[in-house]
């Protein structure tokens, strides 16, 4: 009996070690996702319900493909690639200028309809003035992304759409941590049994435990450099001026290799050393502040960080009105610089030479 008991204990110990090793080596893609299957089509979702861990450690998390839910009162559809908006095939099926957007919640269209987001509105404006050429948008923006994640997303997912133009949305927290980071199980901790967790999960019909996303406190997310002691070491390369500049340098290299234009958009403005860096890199900078303030003045509005330009008094994300102004500023800038005409001409069908 003693031998049987020792053998059983040894067997359980081996299984515990095996399940700890399994948890530590588990690939993040699709595991521990906070949302899959949790919200029925058409149901109301929160941000945590529509994202999952990414297999790419520099992207961290991504939108779940194939969604059709309601987020903040607006319909959210995601393509098979996990982007908001209409599905765009990598191969062009018509003469079209292809725009890939890199951004976070502002470009994503937080709280507004898909068709009211500024990239969608900009495309409609430019298509109306580009006879014979469509303007197609691949909006890769995800709420909470920073610049490092955005450029990584372009390289890993966006380049296959052969962009003519890449629009980068700059916001003040682009140098900080994203909204979520991946939490991996503490496989050396003695405070839990991975074998027991597995058995309990199976009895309850739950999926295997694995890496999961956890929210990052706002003060750490926005001012990460001042709280590096609270940032997991594997994420420190995502934040700060050096990481931001390296990502922008990488974007310039990609633009030269793949032949696309880059425009940086800031709503309402860019600040500090980032402005100088954008100019050094040779990227056109479009700022919306002047146009937004002029619009507000014409409406007798003093605070541009309040409705009707924002969603609510507490949520400064642009409303549909704000997105319309951003779209107008961006479209006007592309036209005035000649970039819109140049990109459209590149995609116009070639006219055969007349017969001699």
What does it look like?
With about 350 residues, this protein is α/β, with parallel strands linked by helices. It has a domain at about 90-180 and about 235-345: SGNH hydrolase (Rossmann fold). It contains 11 helices and 12 strands. Strands 7-6-8-11-12 form a 5-stranded parallel beta sheet, with helices on both faces. A hairpin with a 2-residue loop joins β4 (about 70) and β5. α1 (about 1-25) crosses α5. The longest helix has 24 residues, at about 1-25. It starts with a helix and ends in a 9-residue tail after the last helix. Residues about 25-35 have low confidence and may be disordered.
Question: Which features characterize this protein?
Answer:
alpha/beta, 15% strand, 356 residues, five-stranded parallel sheet, 37% helix, Rossmann fold, 11 helices
Short description:
The chain has about 350 residues and is α/β, with parallel strands linked by helices. About 35% of the residues lie in helices and about 15% in strands.
Helix run count: 11
**Regions with little confidence, pLDDT below 50 for 5+ residues:** 23-37
Number of strands: 12
Q: Tell the overall outline.
A: globular
Estimated helix fraction:
25-40%
Give the CATH superfamily of the domain at 90-178 and 235-347: SGNH hydrolase
Give helix and strand order, one letter per element, not per position: HEEEEEEHHEHEEHEHHEHEHHH
- Rg, nearest Å: 24 Å
CATH topology of the domain at 90-178 and 235-347: Rossmann fold
What's the pLDDT, averaged over the residues? Answer: 84
Give the CATH architecture of the domain at 90-178 and 235-347: 3-Layer(aba) Sandwich
Overall structural class, as computed from helix and strand content, comes to: alpha/beta
């Amino acid at each position: 009996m003693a031998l049987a008991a020792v053998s059983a204990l040894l067997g359980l110990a081996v299984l515990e070690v095996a399940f700890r090793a399994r948890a530590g080596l588990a690939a993040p893609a699709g595991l521990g996702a906070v949302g899959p299957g949790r919200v029925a089509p058409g149901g109301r979702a929160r941000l945590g319900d529509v994202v999952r861990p990414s297999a790419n450690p520099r992207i961290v998390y991504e939108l779940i493909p194939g969604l059709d839910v309601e987020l903040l009162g607006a319909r959210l559809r995601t393509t098979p690639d996990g982007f908001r908006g209409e599905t765009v095939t990598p191969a062009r099926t018509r003469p079209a200028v292809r725009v890939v957007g890199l951004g976070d919640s502002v470009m994503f269209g937080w709280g507004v309809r898909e068709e009211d987001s500024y990239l969608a509105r900009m495309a409609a404006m430019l298509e109306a003035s580009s006879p014979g050429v469509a303007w197609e948008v691949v909006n890769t923006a995800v709420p909470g992304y920073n610049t490092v994640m955005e450029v990584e997303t372009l390289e890993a997912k966006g380049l296959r759409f052969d962009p003519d133009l890449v629009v980068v949305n700059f916001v003040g927290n682009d140098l900080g941590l994203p909204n979520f980071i991946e939490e991996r199980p503490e496989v050396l901790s003695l405070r839990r049994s991975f074998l027991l967790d597995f058995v309990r999960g199976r009895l309850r019909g739950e999926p295997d435990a694995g890496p999961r996303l956890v929210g990052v406190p706002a003060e750490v997310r926005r001012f990460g450099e001042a709280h590096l002691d609270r940032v997991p070491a594997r994420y420190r390369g995502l934040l700060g001026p050096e990481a931001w500049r390296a990502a922008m340098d990488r974007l310039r290299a990609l633009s030269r290799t793949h032949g696309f234009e880059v425009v940086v958009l800031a709503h309402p403005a860019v600040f500090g050393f980032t402005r100088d860096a954008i100019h050094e890199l040779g990227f056109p900078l479009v700022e919306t502040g002047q146009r937004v303030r002029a619009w507000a003045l014409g409406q007798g509005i003093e605070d541009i960080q309040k409705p009707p330009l924002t969603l609510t008094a507490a949520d400064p994300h642009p409303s549909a009105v704000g997105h319309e102004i951003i779209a107008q500023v961006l479209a006007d800038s592309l036209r005035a610089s000649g970039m819109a005409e140049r990109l459209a001409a590149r995609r116009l069908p070639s006219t055969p030479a007349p017969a001699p």
